[in-house]
Amino acid sequence: MSHNEQQIEAEIQAKGLNAPRLTPALIDDTILAEQYHVFPGTTLTVCALTLRNGFQVTGESAAASPENFDEAIGRKIARENARNKIWALEGYLLKQHLADAAVRGKTTLCDDDDIPF
Known about the structure:
By secondary structure, this protein is α+β, with helices and mostly antiparallel strands. The protein has helices at residues 3-14, 24-29, 71-103; strands at residues 31-38, 45-51, 56-61.
C-alpha cells in the first residue's frame, strides 16, 4: 500500500464512510502470484499479476535512456501499474453486486451474498 493510499484510507475511516467499498488491502488480497519479464536488449519490463480467479493483469515500465535502466525499479513501476488496473476491475465487480442486490430488493450486501467487500 502506497503512502498516498494510507492517507486516503485514514481519511475515509476518520469520516466514517463505511458503505461497501474497495480497500487497498482488498486489492492486495486479490493478487495470487506475480511474474516479471524484461525483454532482451530493451528496458521494457512487464509485470503479470495473476488474480485469485485466474485472470491476469499486466503493467509495464520502460526507461527512456538505457543508461537509467534499473531492473528492480522497472519491476516496482510495472507492478504498480498492473495493480492500479485491479481497482477498476474490482470497482466494476462491486458495482455489479450492488446493482444485483438492488434488483433483489436488498438495501445492503450481507454475508450470504458471498462478496468479500
